[in-house]
Amino acid sequence: MRLSTVILPIHRWSEGQKIWRRAEDLGFHTAYTYDHLSWRSFRDGPWYGALPTLTAAAGATERLRLGTLVTSPNFRHPVTLAKELIALDDISDGRITLGIGAGGNGFDATALGQEAWTPKERADRFAEFVPLLDRLLTEDVVSERGTFYSADEVRNIPGCVQRPRLPFAVAATGPRGLRLAARHGQAWVTTGDPKLFEDGTPEQSLEALRGQIAKLGKACAEIGRDVEPMEMVLLTGFTPDRPLDSFDAFVDFAGKHFELGFTELVVHMPIADSVFAADESVFEKIATDALDQLR
Questions:
Q1: I need a surface site. Which of 13, 57, 196, 230 has the fewest CB within 10 A?
Q2: What is the pLDDT of residue 73?
Q3: From residue 140, how far is each of 83, 134, 156 by CA, in Å?
Q4: How far apart are CA 18 and CA 213, in angstroms?
Q5: pLDDT at 11
Q6: In 3D, which of 95, 218, 266, 84 has the Cα closest to residue 167?
Q7: pLDDT digits (tens, 9 = 90+) for 181-239
């Protein structure tokens, strides 16, 4: 059982570095950040780049794993992303996890001047993006000619500190994404069923998650992979539950989701006057004591 956190890249580093160090001091397994150009209600406020933020966080911490949750093809290319990830993995001494997903139709989708891709178009690109990125992070020289992404004699020497490459945590709920998770992921990420967020119940959410896990198992079975070694990550805050309302509420929430098969729960570091507002004392007690209640 692992408990991790998300630190949004909204703070000047003079303040942000204290938050990343606090995440390490609280004992979180991993601290992730969103890899967006801007995001929802934070669009008109400060928002910094994910990879430079993680690079700075690597220098400010020693044990804490670091990662994106999630990177997408919306404004990334596998060739340039691979080069940056190899450098980041080296700077952090092998503490990086790449959370990666197909992207959505938010602000990132049109920031480069293009029309927002349809769900099928996002899936088509993701199906090329992930395998090419996998090759770029594991092979010294890569050439590939794809419909959307290509590489021409690209060198990535010496490769990742983590071997054969840094781990992928693939965010997916549809059949094509789950197949990518099964083939390329060391972990699978979900936020639950978005249709249940406002009007569903916690019980309905658990059932939806059970169904997603079953589909992941089927995708793994199709390629002869055992689903058990794969880490299963739930990014909280997008289901009908309110696990940060109290310590007991979180312990109950965590117990039910670990029973489903999740191995890592991710909670957002509190941000006052936002959708991620939470009582700091409750949050700290959850971070330091909750998992002990479940062992």
A1: 13
A2: 96
A3: 12, 12, 5
A4: 36
A5: 97
A6: 95
A7: 999 999 999 999 999 999 999 999 999 999 999 999 999 999 999 998 899 999 999 99
What lies within 8 Å, CB to CB, of 79 at 6+ separation is 136, 149, 151, 154
Neighbours of 139 (CB within 10 A): 17
Residue type, position 14, single letter: S
pLDDT of 99 reads 98
pLDDT at 228: 87
239 φ/ψ angles, rounded to the nearest 5 degrees: -115, 170
HSE, side-chain direction, 13 A CA sphere, residue 151: 26
Could you tell me if 77 and 129 are in contact, meaning their C-beta atoms sit under 8 angstroms apart? no
User: Which portions of the chain are predicted below pLDDT 70?
Assistant: none
Q: Which residue has the tokens 């794993």?
A: 65
Tell me what pLDDT residue 28 has.
Answer: 98
User: H/E/C letters for each residue in the chain?
Assistant: CEEEEECCCCCCHHHHHHHHHHHHHCCCCEEEECCCCCCHHHCCCCCCCHHHHHHHHHHHCCCCEEEEEEECCCCCCHHHHHHHHHHHHHHCCCCEEEEECCCCCCHHHHCCCCCCCCHHHHHHHHHHHHHHHHHHHHCCEEEEECCCCEEEEEECCCCCCCCCCCCEEEECCCHHHHHHHHHHCCEEEECCCHHHCCCCCHHHHHHHHHHHHHHHHHHHHHCCCCCCCCEEEEECCCCCCCCCCCHHHHHHHHHHHHHHCCCEEEEECCCCCCCCCCCHHHHHHHHHHCHHHHC
